[in-house]
Amino acid sequence: MSDEERKDTPEQDEFRAYCREWLSKNAPGPPPVQLPQSPIEITTEEQMAYLRGWQKSAYEAGLVGCDYPKEYGGGGRKDCQRIANEEMQRAGAPYFPNVIALGMAAPTIFFHGSEELKKRFIPKILSGEEIWCQGFSEPNAGSDLAGAQTSAVRDGDNWVINGQKIWTSLATFASWMILLARHDRADKYSGLTYFVVPIKEELGRTVDVRPLIKITGEAGFNEVFFNDLVVSDRYRLDDVGKGWQVAMTTLLHERGAGPLVTPAAAGRASEGDLTRNAMSLIDLARNSERNGRTAADDPVVRDRIMELVVRQSGLLQSLRRTRVKGLTDHPLRIPQAAKLVFTELYQDIAALSLDILGPSGTLFVADENAPQGGQWPLAYLNSYGMTIAAGTSEVLRNILGERVLGMPKSK
């Protein structure tokens, strides 16, 4: 019996058994199309259709939104999404495509939205019927989120939105966006208001989405331009001027520190999932030849691999502390540190993989001779975005130092 199972309540133990049985019969087989390494790189309708079908199936079975109240389309359970996630991971199930909605939009609407908005949006988020994107970053306001300049001007019962957002994952598929906009330029923080805004129905009229092609050839990121988009005031979350506080709820959940557990991180996508596991480097080294020997025969390579394995093991053990009462009184302490450590570990795993592969590490996914389908060089290129998304490593270190450790603010 695992450590997690020993701590389950009788109700949770029953739910775990149900999840395990359902997944044994219903977990999807190999996908009909090659999937990207993470949901934010979904670029084709075929990829999205397969993954949306999987999310809908899991939702109807009760494995998505387990901890949300039933009146908002959830399962009405307590601390059970964690269990569903563990069992989906164990079964090797695919990730869910609606990552922005599940991890950010749904909890933000739940804590700050009206009853009307909760009942309107959360069920369709959980089922994957409506895909969402996030309108936070701008060309001149990335790490300095409070510097956002996209404007929201009040016009009776409506707001008129103008401006630009960037690095907008899944915007080409999104029906809705969570949007941080500036209604008052006089105050940096209290001049921000938070909205949910329609995207798909306004494409080509007041909303323009332009894909950004990454160095990998994928187009998960986008620019979004607003030209007099009219949004009803009923789509505002919380009070006017409370946008910064609402955004903190979004970021708290995006970084895994919020009170509602997201199902978005469960499962795997493809062979690319191996690139996030330091243990995978052992087999890679054993199968990578160097002058008639393998990379695993090199003691320096073995030492470097084991250093990463130890770091990974330490991170996993540290995450167990999130279940210990008293250690999570400060929501940023463990999850935010874990986000920082994991993304830098992932970057180091990918970098070492290229050293192990040597010249064959230059063969990309389109080359039939690329080892393991070229997933390792793809992971290396993608790894740099990981230390930027959801707050750069530098920003996270400042937050941990100032808000958790109580150190003086950096200058």
Brief summary:
The protein is an alpha+beta fold and 411 residues long. It has 3 domains: 3-97 and 118-127, Butyryl-Coa Dehydrogenase, subunit A, domain 1 (Orthogonal Bundle), CATH 1.10.540; 132-254, Butyryl-CoA Dehydrogenase, subunit A, domain 2 (Beta Barrel); 271-404, Butyryl-CoA Dehydrogenase, subunit A, domain 3 (Up-down Bundle), CATH 1.20.140.
Describe the protein's architecture and organization.
The protein has 3 domains: 3-97 and 118-127, Butyryl-Coa Dehydrogenase, subunit A, domain 1 (Orthogonal Bundle); 132-254, Beta Barrel (Butyryl-CoA Dehydrogenase, subunit A, domain 2); 271-404, Butyryl-CoA Dehydrogenase, subunit A, domain 3, CATH 1.20.140.10. The N and C termini lie far apart (50 Å). The strands form 3 sheets. It has a 4-stranded mixed β-sheet with strand order 1-4-5-8. Strands 2-3-7-6 form a 4-stranded antiparallel β-sheet, with no helix packed on it. A two-stranded antiparallel ribbon has the order 9-10. Residues 266-272 have low confidence and may be disordered. With 411 residues, it is α+β, with helices and mostly antiparallel strands. 41% of the residues are buried. The radius of gyration is 22 Å and the shape is globular. It is built from 12 helices and 10 strands.
What is this structure's SSE topology?
Layout: H1 3-6, H2 10-26, H3 45-60, H4 81-91, H5 99-112, H6 115-127, E1 132-135, E2 151-155, E3 158-165, E4 176-182, E5 192-198, E6 207-212, E7 221-232, E8 236-237, H7 243-254, H8 280-286, E9 289-290, E10 293-294, H9 299-319, H10 333-357, H11 375-386, H12 393-404
Helix pairs in contact: 2-4, 5-6, 5-7, 9-10, 10-11, 10-12
